[in-house]
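#struct-queue
[09:14] JT: dropping the first one here, sequence first, then the structure tokens:
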Amino acid sequence: MLSPARSWSPLFFGKARSRISRIPAWVATGSTDPRIPLFHQVVLIYEQRSEQSFFIHVPSFLQRSVNLKPQDLHDLLCIRLQSNHNSPEILPTIPAHLITVILDLTAQLRSSTAGNYPTVISPSEALPFHSSVPLAAFLLEYPVLYCPDESTADHTSVSHLDQITLDVYECIISFSDDQTSGRKTSPRPVAASSHPSPTSTHSLLKFSCPSQLGLSSERLAPASVISRLQSHFSLSIAKLHGSLQIQHSTVTLNGVVL
């Protein structure tokens, strides 16, 4: 369920540090690099039990989390997965245990002054499996959150959605090579317009949703999910002079390990 493009293992950073002979003072003190203002609003969230790490943009996270309530399902939907049978169902509210974790992280960030956030924060307690899975989806800004039942074994080897057809969505960002290199180019001659600049692409996120729920709920129908993704990401990507493409496909697997 996690997107490798937006999650990192803490072991990577340990290996990277071992190659640096001289550690900058801002790293040693746990602060952000003063030369890169953008980092002043970026924090690493590390979840101890699952050993997962996520970079978040603090203002964007707080905008979504500060007043989060169980009935706030306009931007996301929670799908309950039970280990004892294979019938996913839409939850009427956001699980209370998930809101507790999100508000815990929110309180830690709000206790710091803007631009002076800690480099790394973690949930106050190690999270059980049924909380860490939907938290990851929330941090990665998936519109659909898989919520394993609380009776699910507390490890990631449990298979769900066996032989269930899934709608798979992938958001791909495209930039022209001129934009990614930062070069300022002169207007192209009209004759050259038939040869567009090469583009670079990046998979922003990829997630799934049981197709059967899309048949019973209009909000999970492919057209609705694609529309919500476009509304959520298009403006930010346009500010970067990029374009967003959303690919939809279906797949049936022997099982999904979260």
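[09:21] JT: and here's the second one, same format:
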Amino acid sequence: MNKVIFVFLFLFTCHLSVQAQKYRTAAGVRFGGNNFGITAQQKILKKTTIEAIGAVGGREVSATGLVEQHFPLLGPGFNIYLGAGAHVGHLKDNGAFYGGDLIAGAELKLPIAPLVLSFDLKPTFHVNHEEWGGVGSGFSIRYILVKEKKEKKKLFGIFNRKDNDRDKRKSRDEERGGWFKKKKKVEEKPKGFFKRIFDK
């Protein structure tokens, strides 16, 4: 019963999150299987972000950089993402190591708070390490630092078209002198008898 309630609340939250605020920069904490760290995410293209992860484990510390491509599922509030990158670190007994990373995850922006929740799987490949690699998982909570500005869109372009027509009419009226502005005709006064003789 509890599982059914949890699934229902999760799907309901996903439905609401379609209208959630987009973001450009978010940072927070990441909980891994054997480590704990911080994470920061920055949007660089429409559906592309870069992420930096700093992690501390029992015998090692590491820093990872990733480029991630996002794919919306239920609108801009819920999406999955895939990415790749590299890491460097220091192992307690072996010293420095480095390697490559892949990542696949799901991300949810909460509609009631400026928070982003995500869960990911991150395969790693090590060089100069006790292990050749492995597959880790992590849960991240990020706080939205910089929101993305919303663009005002006209409904089917109707109002936008009306505004353009109004501007065209206004400029046309100004060129013609306005609707109520009429050109005054210059009336010639009749010349006198002597003036007509001398003009000839």
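[09:30] RK: nice, looked through the second one.
[09:31] RK: The first strand starts at residue 23 and ends at 32.
[09:31] JT: good to know. The beta strands are 23-32, 35-45, 48-57, 60-72, 78-91, 95-109, 115-127, 133-147.
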